[in-house]
Amino acid sequence: MKRVMFIITINVVVLGIMTNCRRNKLPYEPMVLGPDSAQVNESVTFTASATDPDGDNVAIRFDWGDGNTSNWSSYVSSGQSVSMSHTYTNAGTYYVKAQARDVNGALSGWSSAHEIVIYSGQIGWIKTYGSGGDVGFSVQQTEDGGYIIAGITWSFGADYEDVYLIKTDAYGNVEWTKTYGGSYNDWGYSVQQTEDGGYIIAGTTESFGAGYYDVYLIKTDAYGNAEWTKTYGGSDDDWGWSAQQTEDGGYIIAGRTWSFGAGASDVCLTKTDAYGNVEWTKTYGGSDQDGGESVQQTEDGGYIIAGWTKSFGAGEADVYLIKTDAYGNVEWTKTYGGSGDDSGCSVQQTSDGGYIIAGGTESFGAGEADVYLIKTDAYGNVEWTKTYGGSDDDWGRSVQQTSDGGYIIAGGTESFGAGGYYVYLIKTDAYGNVSPKISIRVAQPGGVKSMLRGYQLHMKYGKLRGMR
What we know:
Blueprint lengths: L1 H22 L7 E3 L3 E3 L3 E7 L8 E6 L17 E7 L4 E11 L11 E6 L4 E2 L9 E7 L5 E7 L8 E7 L5 E7 L5 E8 L5 E7 L8 E7 L5 E7 L5 E8 L5 E7 L8 E7 L5 E7 L5 E8 L5 E7 L8 E7 L5 E7 L5 E8 L5 E7 L8 E7 L5 E7 L5 E8 L5 E7 L8 E7 L11 E5 L2 E5 L5 E3 L9
Parallel strand pairs: 2-7, 8-32
Antiparallel strand pairs: 1-3, 3-5, 4-6, 6-7, 9-10, 10-11, 11-12, 13-14, 14-15, 15-16, 17-18, 18-19, 19-20, 21-22, 22-23, 23-24, 25-26, 26-27, 27-28, 29-30, 30-31, 31-34, 32-33
């Protein structure tokens, strides 16, 4: 009797285990999400999630594709995402996979591979927004790692051309877009993120204001909703090209005026409070045409303005640099250029207290017009100049000093690319020398394009306007 009972007991236990195994189904294969490209020694974060048909909690691990596999994560609810980071030490193409395990130890299969390309140098991507006739004039990286772009659209908005504001994530994917304007032409030329997480846009409006064209200032919240708008100008044309939030929370705007000043047109500088109310306005120039295209507050609380002048200088038009105090009073001015047309489109104070200016030149360089980069000391005296470009028209619209002490210049080119207008991006060292050539794979809609020209990327971005 005892022997029989023992056998029956064992059979019942075995039957229970077999029944339990049949009930515990394998987790489904995870789905891996992450960037398509990164640089060597950059920490890259991937995310994966897996569901369990039994509703069990699951853990996830990653195969990084370089011979390394992560540890298992902590158990999370079925369907909940798990993120892990990895650093690749060598350039190449890698295939990242993930696997799930439930609390009973049952394993899923490995997921489909997510491809990531690791570069040894600078990387890039290409995105286009809108359709024919839409142009981006200004871009800034935002606090969340994405980008904000200001420009002009024919495709959307109220009528004719409207101010176009685009917010993207770190990979150029659109998060939202906004248009601003009225029944006539309205253009956005400059955008900056403000201290409250919103944006300030400077441009020109034909729809509103006192004159034919007026300076157009738009303040938005973090989602592009207009908080207030202002126009500035007189009975003639007035254009706003650049705006920056100042240390006191107000704004400084640089542009060009036909309504005020000494000549046919003058550089115009307007200081406002935090709500766009004018505190003071100044004009600069001579008897001919002059225009301001870029302004930045300097370390001493004053302002540096870059533009162009036909009133002063050596040529038809010269780069015009104006340094003012905190109230717009001139401390000094400088002109740069040769016998042709030369224009300054962007200026930034550098870490040594001097200035870097980007624009275009017809006086120097290889082509009809070339990118023009000028480095000065704290008093505007030239330390060095460089030109970049090919046999056709090329120009610089924006420059910033980079963390390595060099410079990044954005502009336009007709010399390079597949024909027509392309965005032109140039990375230099601290003395304006272009970095050595490397192979760069750039993702773009409809395919991938490799370009060999140092750190210069020629990215299709719609037709660009001229230097001014």
